[in-house]
């Protein structure tokens, strides 16, 4: 029983990490769409 709860915790953690990563990429995409080439080179 504890094995299942541990694996569920890991799945929940990976889901959170995937969401954080996705949000970061969305933010970077938003920044690049609104900046000119010079500003993009700073990144």
Order of helices and strands: HH
**Main beta sheet:** none
For the secondary structure, the number of strands is 0
Radius of gyration: 17 Å
Number of helices: 2
Helix content: over 70%
Q: In the residues, how many domains can be counted?
A: 1
- Report the average pLDDT across residues: 65
Structural class category: mainly alpha
Q: What is the straight-line distance between the termini?
A: 47 Å
Q: Which range does the strand content fall in?
A: under 5%
Shape: rod-shaped
Poorly predicted ranges: none
Description:
The termini are far apart. The chain is rod-shaped and about 40 Å long. It is mainly α. It has 2 helices and no strands. The longest helix has 33 residues, at 2-34. It has one domain.
List keywords for this structure.
43 residues; 2 helices; rod-shaped; mainly alpha; 0% strand
């Amino acid at each position: 029983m504890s094995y299942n709860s541990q694996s569920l915790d890991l799945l929940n953690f990976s889901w959170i990490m995937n969401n954080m990563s996705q949000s970061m990429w969305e933010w970077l995409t938003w920044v690049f769409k609104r900046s000119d080439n010079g500003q993009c080179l700073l990144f």
